[in-house]
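pasting for ref
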Amino acid sequence: MSFRRRGSRRSLDDFGWLRQLDLRSDVPSIEEIRDWSFDTLQFEEDILVEVFISMLEFYDLLKEFNLDRETLKRYVFAVMHKHRKDCYYQRTDIEGEVSVIGTTANASEEDCKSSDNGHHVFCEYHNWYHAVSCAHACFLFLTLGGADQFLESKDIFCIIVGALIHDLDHPGTNNDFEVKRNTALAQKYHNDSVLERHSISEGLNLCARNPELDWLKSFDNVEDRKYVENYITEAILATDPARHATIVKEALAFVEEGPKAYDSVTSESLSESVELTQFDRANLKHRLFIGRLFLHSADISNPLHASFDVARDWAVRVTTEFSRQASKEKELSLEVTSYMDGLDSEYNIAKVQISFFAFM
């Protein structure tokens, strides 16, 4: 069975394409949001702005940090609009041009708007819905999972905001694709967590470039601002699949041998090592470990959704992106990413998902 929507393009108004959803325009209650069955794909994209702010308001974070709600709302809308972009593999300016460097991150805002020319296709997976879905998964880890008791309010804020922007301006292809093509971003970030570093930069620079979006100004203390920026940065970097093995090693050391063993395997750049036999809420390194683990887990949590239909929906979305990358690699005479090729049936998609479960 092949998964292809009617027509040649998908628009922002058509994210219910797989399950043929009639998108909801009502704002859900915090009780509905605070549930494993909550499905971001059921809602119109604007509604998810309120969903995101509701998760922050659950912890009274706007009041605690004196965050202006309208400023924050404008910022979240800006993040939403920045997800409205052409996937890189659809850009006509790279057709057959192996020498071209750069991604759609370099495109103008006008280039990223939808049009009727048939060339504009938005990311099926790495989109606004994925961003809010990840923030929501983190929210559930914090609330229903009870992890909030181990964190400070600033950590909770950084985790939820970091999840929202962790794939900002994502091109629909992966880090390896950037590196293989020697793009401007790959060069800028020296082939290290290329897209993650780009998203961090884009998310924080929204505040720096526009005072109307600058929620960071609420953290007027230099140390507090540095804390927030560093926590968000480290948490988002943890979503790079290349760091998966390291995160698992850290987590196993923490669980099986205690924080003392965890401290011995983690980077000293995060904080000084400490001699402890249990989790210490006063230790930034331990709290940051939770943030890093949560963002990485939320980023790959779709297969665990309470509804198989929702999990299947996300699986088809991400494998659709994989297929497009494989096709683009062939067009550009690049080495084809093997697991992204041949995903033209439900059976082959299922095989990839099983391999994903085994590895991740």
